[in-house]
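Now for a specimen:

…
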Amino acid sequence: MNVEKIITEKQGTIVDVRTPEEFMGGNVAGSINIPLQEIEQQMAAIKNLKSPLVLCCASGNRSSMATLILSKQGIECYNGGSWFNVNHYQSKS
């Protein structure tokens, strides 16, 4: 699945895995904030989100880790990398 297409066609949910402080400093419109360190505690809520999930963070490292964790739980998700990239794709829609 193409991450850009998921975002531009609003097919899933954008999840920002940065800290709440980073998220408040700027984020993708309509995204939700679930910090990486809270992913496992929030699994029930995450499973109820519209999939596929596009995960983003500052550089792509934390979203990559979150993608691994969620994929192992059977959740369809993709690493969107930096939230700036995800924001750029969303601006095209």
Remarks:
- The chain has a mean pLDDT of 96.
- The longest strand covers residues 77-82.
